[in-house]
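Sequence in, structure out.
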Amino acid sequence: MKKIGVFYGSSTGTCEELAQQIADKMGVSKSDVYSADKLNADLVKEYDVLVLGTSTWGDGELQDDWYDGVKVLKSADLSSKSVALFGCGDSDSYGDTFCDGIGVLYEELKDSGCTFLGNKVGTDGYSFSSSIAVVDGAFAGLALDEVNESDKTAGRIDAWTAELKSKI
């Protein structure tokens, strides 16, 4: 069985709560859920599947907790790893940078040799004007909007985690 680690960047607690919901659906123990600022080379080696979550800040910027984490990931051998991305954003107030944090993580890791999972999330049912998280017409990970569409979160997490479990 593949070992799954969930890592999140969160200042307000929203992405942390979403990470825990995803971990619960995936059957991942609380001891395998970490803040991104705890990410290190030993943890990367420990897991076969890395589920990475971030909120998007300001003008489409990555959550601060991730800057050192991205350096750790880029210096690691990810060729045998699977990576799944998720993020949260505000589609009403930041519709032109909705969930860009997912796109930033994707861009940073796309040439790392990892295999992306859950990276073809359709954009139907979302209302936003632009996002760098959209790659080839689909989100590169699970986009969530707890501000405006919290009523859709559980269904989106259920569908995404079911897809992940079928590929792991």
